[in-house]
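Weekly sync, protein design subgroup
Attendees: M.S., D.O., the rotation student, P.L. (late)

Item 1: inverse folding check
M.S. brought a backbone from last month's batch and wanted to see whether the design step gives back something sensible before we order anything. D.O. pointed out we never logged the input encoding, so this time it goes straight into the notes. Structure tokens as presented (401 positions):
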């Protein structure tokens, strides 16, 4: 089956439904929650009531036949607002980690607890990064030590979306530091587990409505059933790694690879929002007796913005389609989508400010917020430099460092 960027009727209906929610609920609240720098609980609850924030919605779109369900929905959500958008979809990263590495029993137990119900909303958090190990996943210091039938975790995680306020935390820890990433495992920390606490909450340049914080693990004791995949699978993987055999991809890396096209879709949504706002402004604003959009300097810039947004979207859809149909990313297509979409979002939002001039630099217009929000896409879930490293290795076949 060849990739065809044609949306099914079901996906088009979902797109229209999510766009309406983004337009009617998310956008009107965006500036307020950006200023407040707080989790927009009323918006998340409203999303839960209509079924947008739910395990059923995420699962249905994730397993949509073409693979385009999630990227199409995420583009619309983040077209509404990136900060509120991340507060709505942030649980999805933790859910993806459980789905990537958990047993059917673990998925059945923990995924529903991450979302809760419309009347009792819950959150999930995926905790991989550390103060001294951002993009370098192999340098993780958080330790998980077996103790009888339990595991005991100690360490500090950082940059965790929903960190400390989530009901379910999914934590990557080292069980054998000598093996680097191959000696790591992923654990679920159940709600209310003693020893887990929130550290510093970060005040951010953008995506301010999304909660980002440190997570402190101090003798966190969890039962063996909280090890994703189970002890037998871990022991088998560690034995292969110690013997020098390939031991399979580590859970954290598999989670990031799976979610790169979804992050790319977020960036496309933000870029599209900025382009559309600048386009509409250029069609209304008059200078020197004519609309500024009639000037080639502005029209050509808008042409480049539109072209780049479409390019990023097509790369994103291709990667999502490949992932859904189990096509290997031989040319690092997942990283390509995130790299191009992220840098497109930064460039397009900056040009939107330029088209608006001084007005674009003020908070009277949302393009300054779009620009602040866009920068994160070149940083989280693998910086642009990391994406280029991955792509470089894929296209050259060399151990680029």
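Designed sequence read out in the meeting:
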């Amino acid at each position: 089956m060849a990739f065809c960027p044609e949306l099914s009727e079901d996906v088009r209906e979902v797109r229209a439904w999510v766009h309406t929610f983004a337009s009617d609920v998310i956008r009107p609240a965006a500036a307020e929650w950006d200023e407040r720098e707080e989790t927009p609980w009323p918006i998340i609850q409203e999303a839960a009531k209509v079924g947008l924030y739910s395990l059923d919605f995420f699962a249905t779109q994730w397993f949509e036949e073409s693979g385009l369900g999630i990227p199409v929905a995420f583009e619309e959500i983040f077209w509404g607002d990136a900060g509120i958008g991340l507060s709505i979809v942030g649980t999805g990263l933790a859910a993806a980690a459980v789905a990537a590495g958990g047993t059917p029993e673990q998925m059945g137990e923990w995924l529903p607890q991450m979302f809760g119900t419309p009347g009792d909303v819950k959150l999930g958090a995926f905790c991989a990064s550390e103060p001294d190990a951002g993009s370098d996943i192999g340098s993780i210091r958080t330790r998980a030590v077996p103790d009888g039938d339990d595991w005991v975790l100690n360490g500090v995680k950082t940059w965790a979306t929903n960190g400390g306020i989530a009901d379910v935390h999914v934590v990557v820890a080292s069980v054998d530091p000598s093996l680097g990433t191959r000696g790591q495992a992923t654990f679920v920390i159940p709600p209310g587990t003693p020893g887990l606490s929130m550290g510093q909450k970060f005040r951010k340049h953008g995506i301010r409505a999304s909660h980002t914080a440190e997570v402190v693990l101090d003798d966190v004791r969890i039962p063996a059933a909280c090890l994703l995949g189970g002890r037998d699978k871990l022991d088998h993987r560690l034995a292969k790694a110690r013997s020098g055999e390939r031991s399979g991809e580590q859970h954290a890396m598999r989670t990031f690879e799976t979610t790169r096209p979804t992050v790319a879709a977020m960036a496309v949504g933000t870029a599209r929002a900025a382009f559309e706002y600048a386009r509409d402004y250029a069609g209304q604003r008059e200078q020197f007796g004519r609309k500024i959009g009639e000037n080639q300097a502005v029209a050509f810039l808008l042409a480049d913005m539109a072209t780049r947004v479409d390019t990023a979207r097509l790369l994103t859809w291709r990667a999502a389609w490949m992932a859904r149909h189990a096509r290997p990313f031989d040319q690092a297509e997942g990283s390509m989508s995130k790299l191009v979409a992220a840098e497109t979002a930064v460039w397009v939002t900056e040009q939107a400010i330029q088209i608006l001039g001084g007005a674009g630099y003020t908070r009277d217009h949302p393009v300054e917020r779009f620009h602040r929000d866009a920068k994160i896409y070149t940083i989280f879930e693998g910086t642009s430099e990391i994406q280029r490293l991955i792509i470089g290795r894929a296209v050259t076949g060399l151990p680029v460092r």
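Discussion: The radius of gyration is 21 Å. The first strand starts at residue 116 and ends at 117.
Action: P.L. to compare against the previous round before Friday.
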